Amino acid sequence: MRVLVAEEIAREGIELIAAAHEVDERLGCTREELAGLLPDYDALIVRSQVQVDAELIAAGSRLVVIGRAGVGVDNVDLDAATRAGITVVNAPTGNTIAAAEHTLALLYGVARRTAAADASIRRGEWKRSQFTGLELRGRTLGIVGLGKIGLAIADRARAMEMVVLGVDPYVTPEQAANHGVELVDLDTMLARADVVTVHVPLTRATKGLIGRAAIAKLKPGAIVLNVARGGIIDEAAVAEALESGHLAGAGIDVFDAEPPTGSPLLGAPNTLLTPHLGASTAEAQVLVAEEVAGQVLEVLDGRSARYAVNAPLLTPETARAIGPYLPLAEILGRFFAQFSRGGVKTLTLEIAGELADHDGSPLKAAVLRGLLETVTTERVNLVNAGALARARGITLVERKTSDAGAFASQLAVWSEGRGGPVKVAGTVAGGEPRITGLGEYRLDMEPADVMLITRHKDKPGMVGRIGAMLGEADVNISAMHLARVRPREDALMILALDDDVPKAVEDAIRAQDAVLELWAIRLGREH
Q1: Spatial separation of the C-alpha atoms in residues 519 and 517, rounded to whole Å
Q2: Domain hosting residue 16, numbered range
């Protein structure tokens, strides 16, 4: 078979493929040149610059696999590739050590102010007293996201005699403790940490995670690091805190816009800025090339690739039956991740009604994709869903039943929480997902990007009071559902909103005497 390498990768990867197939390196091709070449190739390998969109995919009439030498696959149209029956693979683990070491390099550089000291001495100065640094031994490092990179940093920080805190809803305390990490919630970490580093993907939930409110909770003199994705920290808020002296320093490798022309961080004091170098080591480049080459070879040999980032195509019969329920399954996973408020060890997916006659594996993968999307940079799919879940200590149990109640088919995701069972159920009606149950409450509601849910005492005036508070904040309600088991007991109110809810408004509603619990569910994704 023929493999086209359109961007430079390490020779070790090229040699792996060349031992079994014909490899052509055509670097620097124009888009038109690539489109002309692709009909003759079975595989395409790119890095981050070549945009493999639907048009190029259509030109690759022989393509079986597209390999992305790196983690992100933003430059590959996954939907178009899946429709064309092309497997897309990446190399998600090759840069783990490089990213971990670069994070710690930034930490040391900020703590000892090495960049500023270097610039000073090159200007002919000798101002030793201006560059007194900090020792890291005994200080507390807070890691947001305990995936491969986060845990690699934890292991190294422990060797540096740092105290390590971790925030990750899908890692158990036992797993964290195996790496010397104390598992805490975000507010606890912010209050205790001397250094905060983020290692989560950029989603709606993580965008601006380290913003003004979070920074205000950090102790004076803290350090902030980002070697994950631009946008997870609020660049303006960090710059302001550096100017005021509340933050002692920041080490930043990724930015909202790259290159970061106009970023407020460029003029902020006590910063160490690098141009997205997290994976830029000679060793990482070799590992990434070998990893993507191995994935491409697996697919060309007719086997399932471990790091396939798009699920294999379903058979026509299965696709017709479960296809409409895949978006619902992902929504239920995303909803459950926010509704459950806690680590999950065992999760059950109940497939009821007509769906129970079909393979439930794609539905399980979709649930896990929604559940894990805020805590892993790897795309969850049919191939890797089980492995990624197990790595987080999660067991997903599939249960099938012919009884779907009033529906032809229904999906339910549930687990045993600290206060009892936590459950969310849904179906598809008219081709659109519907939420049909939350815990013991029955409902029928279309999911919205932003939903506010309250469990409150069933007493007159509560609905109007909460509606008025949202109205005063200019938050528009698009739909509402009320559910209760018995009059004058606890009631559940679900509001679909056109606008996000400010944190201050959430807190004000939660403070109402009759409000027992409040959830702000954000189902829309932002990358």
Answers
A1: 7
A2: 2-94+283-300
- Owner of token pair 């012919």: 402
pTM of the model: 0.76
Is 102 noted as a catalytic residue in this protein?
A: no
Per the annotation, the verdict on 276 as an active-site residue is yes
Cβ contacts of 316 within 8 Å, gap of 6 or more: none
Catalytic residue among 276, 442, 455, 465: 276
Q: Which of 258, 432, 517, 526 is catalytic?
A: 258
Q: What is the mean pLDDT of each run of 10 residues along the chain (527 residues)?
A: 96 96 95 96 94 94 93 84 84 92 98 95 94 96 94 97 94 92 97 97 88 97 96 97 98 95 96 94 95 94 82 68 90 91 82 92 88 74 73 88 92 80 92 92 91 91 92 93 82 92 93 92 70
CATH code, domain with 148: 3.40.50.720
Amino acid sitting at position 369: R
Sheet with 346-353: strands ordered across: 395-401, 346-353, 409-417, 420-429, 432-438, 441-445
Token pair for 286: 């070799």
What's the angle, vertex CA 349, arms to CA 83 and CA 318, rounded to 5?
30
Q: Is 442 a catalytic residue?
A: no
- Together in a domain, 428 and 485: no
Instruction: Name the catalytic one among 229, 434, 456, 522.
Output: 229
What is the spatial distance between Cα 196 and Cα 182, in angstroms, rounded to a whole number?
A: 14
β-pairing verdict for 181-183 and 163-167: parallel
Which residues are registered as beta bridge partners of 491? 456, 484
CATH of the domain at 366: 3.30.1330.90
Contact, 450 vs 501, CB < 8 A?
A: yes
Q: Is 114 buried (19+), middle (13-18) or exposed (0-12) by CB count in 10 A?
A: middle
* Residue 58, Cβ density class (10 Å: 0-12 exposed, 13-18 middle, ≥19 buried): middle
Walk across the sheet containing 450-457 and list its strands.
477-484, 490-497, 450-457, 515-522
Same domain, 187 and 197: yes
Q: What is the distance of C-alpha 20 from the center of its chain? A: 35
